[in-house]
Design goal:
The complex is a heterodimer of chains A (about 325) and B (about 300). Chain A is of the alpha/beta class and about 325 residues long. Chain A is about 50% helix and about 15% strand. Chain A contains 15 helices and nine strands. In chain A, α2 packs antiparallel against α3, α5 crosses α14 and α11 packs across α12. Chain A is globular and about 70 Å long. The N and C termini of chain A lie far apart (about 60 Å). Chain B has about 300 residues and is an alpha/beta fold. In chain B, the strands form two sheets. In chain B, strands 3, 5, 6, 7, 8, 9, 10 and 11 form an eight-stranded mixed β-sheet that branches. The N and C termini of chain B lie far apart (about 55 Å). Classes of the chains: A alpha/beta (about 325), B alpha/beta (about 300). Chains A and B meet through α8, α9, α10, α11 and α12 of A and β4, α7, α8, α9 and β10 of B.
Chain lengths: ~325, ~300
């Protein structure tokens, strides 16, 4: 049985987890539910009223979501209902065959990967995997890979190169795992080697941040020809909490840190650090995972078509130019 | 001017001698070794490359001092000095990034946290760079990345070996994602060097952590560490908070890394120059620097 099939929750029956700033929407939705109940055992035709409230709810959602702070977006990126890599793989690809292990030490469940088809075309897909329930979260180590995760990813990247498979990566991690074993087995070197390998890999690479882009742990599978971000995903050099506790000496200032670092997709697009922002459904990807996956699928196909038209030398030269272009400095 | 000073010969009274006197007797003429607590005579420690003559404890050393004692005295050119930091994000935490930069520039005399040189190592041309840890914890932002890449580009073009002395807390938070991308930028350049067969030696010194250790510092053809240097991805405090147990003695120290296979060797700073010169000579198929005839170096200036 494929794990990712188990991971598809039935979202219709699942109550949506509302975040703090969504409280007005939650209250309105509760009122609508109440009315529906009343409507069931009442002759009164209240469907008109329900429709009115539903419109109001959509309007309210639009209003709240049109002006989110960086910190609010960070919460959406970590939303407990947010679709994870295997959810997307289930919707976007066919014939996904998951491959396991780094051939040296272990299989790290925080990174998944394998061969698959995208619109019929053979590809390699790799992504961070968080869990949904507590047991799964622990098993996936909350999406925080250990060195063997990065080494499994490297193995699959090299395989992709060998068999001419374009590489698609999905990024969703709080960061690489800070543990004793991870240090003993060379967390730094595992990430560094991936950065080097991805910059020279002779196959197209499209990386997409679908949730949290946590620092080096994200970049470790994130170097490529195209860097995309979902609308409410984040990407940063350190978590807002980590940044706040170091620079403000208090994790409570995470909101300020999130703002100052500019961790959102729209800000990073403005700064020229990412290639494209993929808009999320109203209220976030978790409100309509299938719809989100469909949009992502279309963009991935489009990007692969574009990259497939280039020969390797051009592809590598352009990737190199893009990577070497990162930075802000003046020349005196 | 007091009557006593008026009586003194002018030779003694001049400002120049006054300044010289101040310089030759700095406030810390004596220093205490952080390793063995021995009281040491400062000039002797300096002559010993900031290594304690009693217990061989390796003290932290500035980037420029490091490169000056590592490279041959003549024929040195700085690389990327014109590349200077900007505060593109107008980052402000408890302090403005701009002010932090100005302050770091004042205390270190450097523009940013990496110094790079084209020079010679026992006669053979090399590119060498070093992190200035006193500059915002040696953190890697855009300038560090760009200077590193420019240095590597020269090594590639001239096909001469490159060495980097890392000492850094990681990526610079104040430049946010631009700093993270310097990891990709420097590693990509090292990827090209590897393809072209141009040797790169990484020397990990105390401390080398985070984004710098997870990019350019662990990608050497040879990874060398200084004795007892703290080297790792996550800081010990972060790990302690995550795993909720006290870390073993010597965790993340150079000796621990050697034992776990992360580095090739630990080299005493006083042996660094000779060790790296020998390794580079082997990797580039040059005669051993120990056997090179002395006249070759004497003839050098005539060819310029």
């Amino acid at each position: 049985m494929n794990e990712y099939q188990v991971e598809q929750p039935d979202r219709e029956v699942m109550s949506l987890n509302f975040l703090d700033f969504e409280r007005p929407i939650a209250e309105l939705e509760a009122k609508i539910d109440e009315l529906r109940y009343v409507g069931d055992d009442n002759d009164l035709n209240i469907s008109e009223e329900i429709r009115r409230l539903q419109d109001k709810s959509v309007h309210l959602t639009e209003q709240i979501f049109s002006n989110l702070s960086a910190w609010q977006i960070a919460q959406l990126a970590r939303h407990p209902q947010r679709p994870h890599t295997l959810d997307y793989i289930g919707h976007i690809f066919t014939e996904f065959e998951e491959m396991h292990g780094d051939r040296g030490f272990a299989d790290d469940p925080a990174i998944v990967g394998g061969a698959a088809r995208l619109d019929g075309r053979p590809v390699m897909v790799i992504g961070h995997q968080k869990g949904r329930d507590t047991r799964e979260k622990v098993r996936r180590n909350f999406g925080m890979p250990r060195p063997e995760g990065y080494r499994k990813a490297l193995r699959l990247m090299e395989m992709a190169e060998r068999f001419d498979l374009p590489l698609i990566t999905l990024i969703d991690t709080p960061g690489a795992y800070p543990g004793v074993g991870a240090e003993e087995r060379g967390q730094s070197e595992a990430i560094a080697r991936n950065l080097m390998a991805m910059s020279r890999l002779r196959t197209p690479i499209v990386a997409t941040v679908v949730g949290e882009g946590g620092s080096g742990g994200a970049l470790g599978i994130g170097v490529g020809d195209q860097l995309l971000m979902l609308g409410y995903s984040t990407y940063s050099v350190i978590s807002p909490e980590g940044c706040a506790s170091i620079l403000w000496k208090s994790a409570d200032r995470a909101q300020d840190a999130a703002e100052a670092m500019g961790i959102t997709a729209s800000r990073l697009h403005e700064l020229g650090l990412i290639d494209q922002v993929i808009q999320e459904p109203l209220g976030g990807a978790h409100r309509d995972p299938a719809g989100m996956a469909q949009r992502l699928r279309e963009v991935l196909i489009e990007k692969l078509d574009m990259l497939a038209a280039k020969d390797f030398e051009t592809l590598l030269a352009e990737r190199e130019r893009k990577i070497q272009g990162y930075g802000n400095f003046r020349t005196a | 001017m007091s009557w006593f000073q008026k009586l003194m010969p002018s030779r003694i009274r001049t400002d120049a001698t006054e300044k010289a006197r101040n310089r030759s007797v700095p406030e810390g003429l004596w220093t205490k070794c952080p390793g063995c607590s021995a009281v040491l005579y400062r000039p002797e420690v300096e002559r010993n490359h900031e290594v304690c003559p009693k217990c061989a404890h390796h003290m932290r050393i500035g980037a420029r001092t490091r490169l000056q004692s590592f490279l041959d005295a003549d024929d040195r050119t700085e690389i990327g000095a014109a590349v200077k930091p900007v505060d593109a994000l107008r980052f402000r935490d408890s302090k403005k990034y701009k002010d932090r930069l100005t302050q770091a520039q004042k205390t270190t005399g450097e523009d940013d946290a990496l110094v790079a040189y084209h020079g010679r190592l026992r006669g053979s041309p090399v590119v060498a760079c070093a992190f200035e840890f006193d500059f915002m914890g040696g953190s890697m932002g855009s300038v560090v990345g760009e200077r590193f890449v420019r240095a590597a580009a020269i090594a590639l073009e001239e096909r001469i070996p490159m060495v980097c002395f890392a000492a850094s807390g990681g990526a610079r938070m104040q430049e946010a994602l631009f700093s993270l991308m310097q990891m990709a930028k420097t590693s990509a350049m090292l990827g090209r060097m590897r393809e072209e067969g141009v040797p790169y030696i990484s020397v990990l010194t105390d401390p080398t952590m985070g984004g710098v250790s997870a990019s350019l510092a662990t990608l050497g053809d040879v990874n060398i560490a200084e004795p007892e240097a703290l080297i790792g991805f996550a800081g010990p405090r972060v790990i302690e908070q995550t795993v909720r147990e006290t870390l073993p003695e010597g965790f993340q120290r150079a000796e621990f890394l050697l034992e776990h296979g992360a580095i090739d060797m630990i080299v005493d700073r006083r042996e660094m120059r000779d060790t790296i010169a020998r390794l580079f000579a082997i990797l580039t198929h040059q005669p051993s620097p120990d056997e090179q005839p002395a006249p070759a170096e004497v003839e050098e200036p005539a060819t310029e």
